[in-house]
Amino acid sequence: MIAALLIRGVYAQDILDDLDELMIRDLQRGVPRWRARLRYARNMLASAITLWWDRLGGLAGRGPSLLDMKLGIRMLTKRPGLTLAGGLALSLALTIVVAYAWIDDNVLRPSLPFEDGGRVVSLQRWDTRSGRQELRLLHDLVTWRDELQSIQDVGAALLTTPNVVTGDGQGIPAFGARISASAFRVTGIPPLFGRPLQEQDEMAGAPPVAVVGYDLWQSRFGGDPDVVGQRIRLDTVEAEIVGIMPSGFRFPLREQLWLPLGQEASRHARGDGPPVRVFGRLAPGVSIEEAEAELAGIERNLAAASLETEAQFRPRVLPWAELVMPRGSSVFVTSTLLIVVLILLVMSANVGVLVFARNAEREREIAMRAALGASRRRIVLQLFVEGFALASVAAALALLLGHYAVGRGLDVMRVQWGYVPFWLSRELPSRTIPYVLAFTFLAALVASIPPALKLTRGRFGSAIRQAGEGGSGLRFGRIATAVIVFQVAISVALLTRSANMLAELPGAFGRSVDGVPLAAEEYLVAQLELAGDPRSGTADESSEDMVRNHYRASREALAERLRAEPEVTGVTFASALPIGEQPERRIEIEGLSIPDATSTGYAVRSSAVAPGFFEVMASPIVAGRDFLPSEDAAAVAVVDEAFVERLLPGEDAVGRRIRFSDVPQQASEWLEIIGVVRRVGADAGGAVTPPAIYTPLDPLASDVYMAVHVGAAPDDFPSRLRAMSTAVDPAMRLWDLASLEEIAERAALTSRSATLLVSLMALAALTLCLAGVYALMSFIVSRRIREIGIRTALGAGPRRIVSSIFSRALIQLGLGLAAGVLVSIVLGGGWSASLESGSLVAVAGMMGVMGLLACALPTWRALRVQPTEAFREV
Asked: ∠ CA 448-452-454 to the nearest 5 degrees?
């Protein structure tokens, strides 16, 4: 992959084509597939190296020779400490460059993966009063489609999530859209089989039809091409499959099922109807600004006809890829690039200090090369090539880390948003290589040229003479000392933050907490949704009560069927899952001042639960009682033991009153605590988990999770559960049906990814810090061999020699530790909070010990210096 990106980075597609043809010939000749692939990879890597080396030489005029690069690589193998510390630091810095290149291609300058994808646009009405889009645009769609000349194939999409019911009786919800037939002309992607939607499919009385996406076709129909022409059931309606779209096609966001929008647009008044997304394609030669100006003129006429205030709504035309993530302004793009450059320069400067310390040991070698005729330019160029070799190794690792980081980031986005826009690719863009090459060159310059210039400054004859006398004109310098102090401080701050984040991760499942086991793998959970749910955007406000009552009846019927199953030991419902993801609320306690509360109250976790929830979740009531079925609207609450321990220590919580303080007081009523329960959830026992309160679940609530305790259920139980749900109500959706353990693992993905990132940065900072301290001590010892030998000959004891060598390192370590502690205290919320966690003291102590250990080997070398050895250097 890296070699292919290297080749594409200089637009040498012909090389890839030749390599592909060579591999095909090998396979046709009967060469084993593994051998053909190995030869393909070797040829691709060799071509990439040759290509870029020639390009580098061409850019530099009389560039470095291949012999210089070989010598640079040999020096890396001779100095593994420098290679490890410097390579790790530069690779993390260059990984940020790789991530920026991906963000620049997918976020800052996004485009759809269609032909002229940048000309597919979104038509919007922006409400300046509310600060958001007006999505009820079906009435406007008719006018825009008839009058707009600058935008072609104007259409709309109404997102929907029908249950796809196949022959096995399971209803599995799919992301779909009721969409205008023009969408398939806008995207320009033909179906894999069958035909797309057409205008006649939207006519009144037309038979129901559907176009199916590739992934849905594979998962629900086994990839059978004969499904075209067959009928499927979507909730309670049957539709004929008329087309299968190719792999990767998703529009408008993530959809895999497309149904005709229909002719319902004309029967809605302006500002009425369900929320839709309006799209189109810019006409040839028309800019977005021209299209927006025409749309503004139509909007003025519509506003005058409907007696609206024209200033309230502002028409906008934006590239479709900016529908989810708006393009950043030029200021944002520039500032982001500057931050990336700054991070790279700081890391490169740190590596430069290490390079200088290591190269100082080669002072005599460099002086001899100068005496034999090598110019200063030639020596500096050689040292730059060595730095470039180090940066190149780091760049190769950065491409791998960047590819992994992009995939991890998209996984986090999918967990947080529930989907990933289809135009965001996991693959690195081809222009990543020019980005990385440019920044690799910059990193090599910063890390190698300043040390090389300082090492070769002055007259080389003087350098030879000083080296022969056992002395040196080189000094480590105040800047280098400041860099080491900075490295120690950053290491302490990052390691402390990493330790705190590790402590905050959700606890392991299946462990016993206060004698209450929670085996999360024994619970199946799902989010319930019904057609007509207000969240789906298809409910009529006048029928909302009827829909909610239907939802309640279907939910209770499903629960009764489940309780009749022999594997099921309990079924319950809640507004949020007990995995540490409950919404955070602020509360106040009647007659009590909470010391740690903010101006809006004390932070707790809150969720609404059905009666019997705690029994099903194996968390018994320890004081008071549970909710009663008749208390679905009562002003009562149950709290957990953590709530009592932190807010009411030594008191009886039952009977106290609390209320939510993050809403206006007139809208919040006092809730009486009727019970105390053991901590509920997979993260029970976590030291940083906020206390929890529970209120009765509204029977008509539509945002509900179901938890089923099934014990050691057979593998086919999830399929049976879906079939039961479909039999109860074909329109009931079961989203994210999985074990509680699996759901919790996904919920923890964000925090774990952040912890991994901070830990890698801490590891790089620690490695660079220790390598820098070691290099400093080695440099000092190598510069003072003669002095140490003379002092030993004059009777100086080991204690005085160690003291003289350690003094500077101890000062630097002390300053760095002090700065790191201060930074950690500021980031950790104060002195008491930092000490309470214990990680700051542990990290500071560990850094002090490791810093001293880094000084140990050079000091041991100093103590072994004999006077005869020192005078031999003269």
From this structure: 125
